[in-house]
Amino acid sequence: MKFHTPPRNQGQMVEISYASDDEGAGIFKRVFDKSDGEEMFFFLSWDDFYDLGNDASDFDPWNDEPDVPDREWKKVRAPRMASARTLTASDRKALIRLASTLEKGSDERKAILAGLTTSASDTWGDEVWERHRSQLDFPSVSDPDRKAATESLYKKMQDFEKAYGKSREVSKVLDLLVSLNAALKRAEESLY
Fold first, then answer.
1. Helix H or strand E segment including 50
2. Is the pTM of this model over 0.70?
């Protein structure tokens, strides 16, 4: 189910959008208050919509709101919507490769990277942390003190995630560190 926001409602603090029920039972109205994040849903059956003197062509939410008085809408719980597929490690890897080929700062690159940072689960398991740690074996860090400091930083990030749940900031730092490490390895290999 896809909600459409009529042009006059776009960019407003309280955004009102509409969607046709996937099963053909009626229309959903979503009222989203951006100031506090509150989201409410209302429903109107097609029969009630037609009883108000409307026909199917009057439901055109991409252009204008349906002509239905507020009192006719029935408040309901959020409708069930299809959930997005969880990205696998190979999906993430392919998207990271794709993003690395795009121009820095481009909207496409930003969209891919933003999607990657929000697509992972709330916490990482120990095996994921270990895989990340193994990818952070920086070839240019041969000084034992620097290696110990890198390990300590990594351990602190892991402890933070375990204590407070997955953090977008920690995820970004890890992704940047892994990318930096890969770039360093490629640069080192090209020298030999």
1. helix 46-51
2. no
